[in-house]
Amino acid sequence: MAKIKHNNFLDTVDEVISNATEAGVIHLNAEGDHLNGRKIKIRGKESYHFGTTGYLGLEQDMRLKKAAVDAILKYGTQFPLSKTYISHPLYSLLEEKMTAVYNHPVIITKNSTLGHMAVIPTAVRDEDAVILDHQVHWSVQNAAQILKTRGIPVSLIRHNSLEMLETRIREFSDKAEKIWYMADGVYSMYGDFAPIEELMALCKKYPQLHLYFDDVHGMSWKGRNGAGYVMSVLNELPENVLLIGTLSKTFGASGAVVACTNSSLFRKIKNFGGPLTFSAQLEPASVAAAIASAEIHLSDEIYDLQSDLQEKIWYFNQLLSQTVLPLISVNESPVFYIGTGLPATGYNFVNRLMNEGFFVNLGLYPAVPVKNTGVRITISRHNQLADIKALSEAMEYHYPLALEETGNNFERVGKAFRLEISSPKTTAKGSGSLEVQYENTISRIPEEEWNKCMGGKGTFDWDGQLFLEKVFNGNEKREHQWSFHYFIIRDEYKNSVLSTFLSNSLWKDDMTAPASVSKKLEETRERDPYFMTSPVLSLGSTFTEGEHLFINRKHPRWEEALKLLLQEIEKLSEKVRAEMVVLRDFEKDDTLAKIFNDEGYIPAEMPESCVLEDLDWKDEQDYMERLSSRSRRHFRKEVQPYEDKFDIRIVQNPHPGEIEKFYQLYKNVKQNNYGINTFTYPQKLFFSMAESPNWEFIVLKLHSSLFEGTEPSIVGVMFCYKNLGITYVPSLVGMDYKYATEFQVYRQLLYQTIKRAKDLGFKRIDFGLSASFEKRKFGATVKRRLSYVQTEDNYKMESIGMMRNES
């Protein structure tokens, strides 16, 4: 049974970021002895700066610079004390002015991340519940994780989904005193807004609902006194709303600000808000610069600055509307996102723009789903209208070229973002004389050709696939109804360059989550069987393991064939409405990794794979001598003494009563292993095994001499597939847990599997992906494997990840 291990998040992000760094689009260094906001020097080239979050350009305002310099000369570079004890002389003035900006009491924090860590654990009580928009900034999500240690429920909803939010509110209404919904005012990637008016209407409908807004990207360029987007909608801050603004980014200085009208909560945050108590306070230079900025915000000048920026935002929107560029969210914010879909296209497009003298940001995983990679452009007052027009023209010219050069097109980008894109058809690079044969049944694939490429691997030779098609077709339950999809790509001489198959089936989203997560979800599935499940298109299937993709890497066009396959998979995924595509069972450090990343897949680590290839020993003693000294001791202690306690049979065609028993033993193992949380296979599978000449059963039955007066039943069974005389595959196992530990049933099944494969003359045993610690003791070689995953969005992965953190 296949088990795809949950990817190590840090390793995955590291690989994605490393690829982008190697492509030369992130981890760059600005050069030169000064900055002016309009241009930035990178790799020796002056570029127009369209990547800043200082939308009003105040970081270059001479008044802020002079204030910072004067503060250093007067008060030093820092004031190294906790603000709880004493603030440096400028702090009270800043608080006074920021109170005037918001027209509400405020607390100053070192930055917004520490602000969230100070406010959220203080504001949210043990009897409350928290709901996060799944695109709310990482700093909010990270601070919310702290709440889980106190048993506070924290859950995600899809971005701006009011329907889902209301459902979740109802679920918590009888369990929580307050229900906090946390969102951004302006979202940092697409520049879209929180539906604040609709959220306030929900607050009236559900008085328990409280709102927590991170509005750092809405600050200064919007609202009265530049108090931000959220305040521009609310005008006044209700008691059930907490607001985090920033003194960084557009404000031009450093730090963050918390606005709160609940006097009791305000006091508690100020008295003990984690980092507020134990972290150093803002440096005098930062506070002085913030004071200077606040004075601008409290003057009519702020409206002139806002108007100047809005004119440039409007101008850029007008220019983009006259192009075919896919702007993902059209609005009045200074953040623009041009979708590229594939990371490779994003890398190419960014580099093209940088070569033309325009610096923009790449939006990539985990900030966005990997297939929603794009270019994030920000407009600031530093940008002149001529700069903006030149950027628009450069993007319009280079975008189609970036698509063409990376085998992408407008249609694929539109599908990735679920947008209707009206654009000229751009055809991906032609596949020349490569031919694709697609079939939905193995019966239309030449048996000899298939087995030449795929035979002797796992259970998916030609006969094995025909077997699975018959088992997983015509079933009533959704989880037992699979479709199979076969691809062979040949060159002009009809030689196979690539062969593979995929299955489309229903997976549990927690298939690889910790047992505690799956156990909790299974409680919900008792009343809702398909809760947190998704249709998945995967190389292979959850029943098969091994190298599901054959590529002739000696062929000069194998990379072209692989990219052609990935385009075919993309089309198939849309057709079958899969929510996730999983390309499985690849060795680490495979050269395919870069291609998969460029095409929008992220790596996910799988469990270790176990293979036994040494079956040349003469007898048991010879076999033992080939084991390590530690494994020999294990064999003598845990295997040899128990072998004579079993009646061991090889069953070829078991009768229905035996199959019923085998099935119950299989279900014992399945129900005791939440770590491999797939759907239980149908009984039909096991009756089909009994009828197939390629399947046999290694059956363990304890000797009657061990019992008095009762007939012992079967205590263990291994379900084994014989693949073309090459590979022996113990695919499933069943056990009676009443005897499993006392008589070392599982270890005995492993040993009997090895003996059987040896007796039949097989060359190798594919032991699969589970229990590698045990299989290693029997001489199996362990191999590390990766899968590559592409999802419609990150919502379900992040939801399961959040549940993992609770376990």
TrEMBL record:
Entry keywords, A to Z: Aminotransferase, Transferase
Pfam families for this protein: Acetyltransf_6, Aminotran_1_2
Protein name stated in the entry: Bifunctional aminotransferase class I/II-fold pyridoxal phosphate-dependent enzyme/GNAT family N-acetyltransferase
Upper classification of the organism: Bacteria, Pseudomonadati, Bacteroidota, Flavobacteriia, Flavobacteriales
Stretches assigned to the BioF2-like acetyltransferase domain: 630-775
Cofactor: pyridoxal 5'-phosphate
UniProt KW Transferase keyword: yes
Domain Aminotransferase class I/classII large: 74-383
